[in-house]
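INTERNAL AUDIT FORM
Audit reference: QA-55
Scope: verify that the stored structure record matches its stored sequence.
Auditor: D.O.
Record contents follow.
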Amino acid sequence: MRGSRKDVRIFTNLYIELDQKHLERFEMWCWRRMEKISCSNHVRNEEVLLRVKEQRNILHEICKRKANWIGHICVETAFYNELLKERYKRG
């Protein structure tokens, strides 16, 4: 039996939230590695961000790059569609 749309939507939202948490963890892990901060030092994430003078921005950067990529795809697709229309008109 297939799940309802509501079940799928809930699962999708949960999956997205988990991905976001993993990406944020990865970002903090990268900052800690670059600053050579050991896990045994018990330094809070906020302190790490203050040390590197950065904010959490990996999710924002991913969204920005996705939007840029989608823009390229849409423009490219529109260009090819126009090219095909012209080819079939002559054809």
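Auditor finding: record pair retrieved intact. The CA atoms of residues 77 and 83 lie 10 Å apart.
Action required: none
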